[in-house]
Amino acid sequence: MKADELRQMYLDFYQSEGHTVISGGSLIPENDPTVLFTTAGMHPLVPYLLGEPHPSGTRLCNVQKCIRTGDIDSVGDLSHLTFFEMLGNWSLGDYFKEEAIAWSYKFLTSSSYLGFDPGCLSVTVFAGDENVPKDEESIAIWKKLGISESNIHALPMKDNWWGPAGKTGPCGPDTEMFIDTGRAPCGASCRPGCSCGKYFEIWNDVFMQYNKLEDGTYVSLQQHNVDTGMGVERTIAMLQGKSSVYETELFSPVIEAISDTAGRKMNEDEDTAIAFRVVADHLRSSVFILGDPRGVSPGNLGQGYVLRRLIRRSVRYARKLELESGVLCKLATAVIDGYKHVYPELGERREWITSELGQEEERFEKTLSRGMAELNKVLEKLQEHGQTVFPGRVAFRLYDTCGFPIEFTEEICAENGMNVDRAGFDKAFEKHKEVSKQSAAKAFKGGLADHSEMTTRLHTATHLLHKALQETLGSHATQKGSNITAERLRFDFSHPEKVTREQLDQVEKMVNDAIRADYPISFESMTLEDAREQGAMALFGGKYGEMVKVYSIGDFSKEVCGGPHVARTGELGHFRIKKEEASSAGVRRIRAILE
Asked: Of 85, 127, 341, 397, which cross-links 154 as Cys (Cβ 3.0–4.6 Å)?
């Protein structure tokens, strides 16, 4: 079975069970401030998991693009990826464990669907702790379906619990499904979740039945939800009997392009295989981030920093394969052509994707040149004094300030008969990571910080601001991102130059006139096509026939949106723009408050 067949079969199956097929969300979260990228199918649905009614009902399914970089250093093995597609189905206060588990089992094992041998299926469930009881209900359901007790494993919270997006919020136990690959166990403690490769995780059913409170206690949610996810890449690898996700048709175009350019095969040796996989994975992720309708450019903060790191790691491993400069653009074409029939935005944004990749690769080449110059200076001084060890803190300074990879430092030092103090580098690097973790909470996050009254008012004000910007600057001034807390709003929009003071005054006046007019705010559920025919702004696309919410602010604005809003504009207060500045190339940023 190919990936195209799997996607369609999954959606058809859940549609037959009463689910509505909806479009996947952007990779850049709109309503979840806790993550830089959409890391799971649930993120675009957070408002609905919290109780907001979804226009398409209480049973939903889709295919969601995801980015996760927490395991970026593991990329290069047989299964870890930074970009992946997640097949998901949701119950928003509708069905719960009985139906969710039964459908998962049916889709996995029925000969009409994936046809996995039930005997090869192992599952894990939540073992319980002092705060939440053991998930006996899921265990009973699995036994009823015929899974033997020896293949049901109760594991602790770190393995079988889906935590809230932030410190508080919806959460609950999950049950995970694994395919036994037939490999010998690595030892007596080998079980699903072990990294030896015997068990391959394929599906995860999350049961959001608790709300975690500020004091760390858990209370039952009024609306119990189901959130499930099945990885396309991993499932296809298992269905095709492959030992690696990189051996499927999802990666073959870019792997072949790397092979043709490098003049060598991926499996020549382990180091070569790792380099192939890292280039293929990181480049694929970069293409999807740049190709997203809300795509960002490489930069030094937030999403831009993650994208820059992915591109630069691609360049570093491409160098290990002795690929020439400027190769990323050529390889990106293979990714785009392999996916544009599923994600047409990649084809539409081809020129932008290749241009940004080319520019970033060129910038990194200059960075490497600067790093080489600095490294040679230090080497010369050390050799003058008869030193044979390159200080770890200096190696880290080259990495931190010049972006010079530690592997490059080690290779060049070895050529000069010198060892690198790797322990000293690792110590400095760990300290840097700790500082980065602390500052990550302050980095750019997309969407709404919460659904409080003030955040809701500011979110409503962004609709007025968006419309006023288009009226003042032109229809090109469309939203590129937003970040809204209870204190202020931050709004990014397309515009090629600085907005003048006169234009900002005009925008501010237009927003405040709309507030004084005390327009009523209402919403209707309709198809995306009807919304567009009625003149509603719908920036991020969607599939034909999909139901969406359209919010109207009197006769001032009409926009597709899923977030919370006030009842009338008169509730907002006085709108004031505090700052206008550049966000990235061709994108401006406004910071504003309500007084």
From this structure: 127
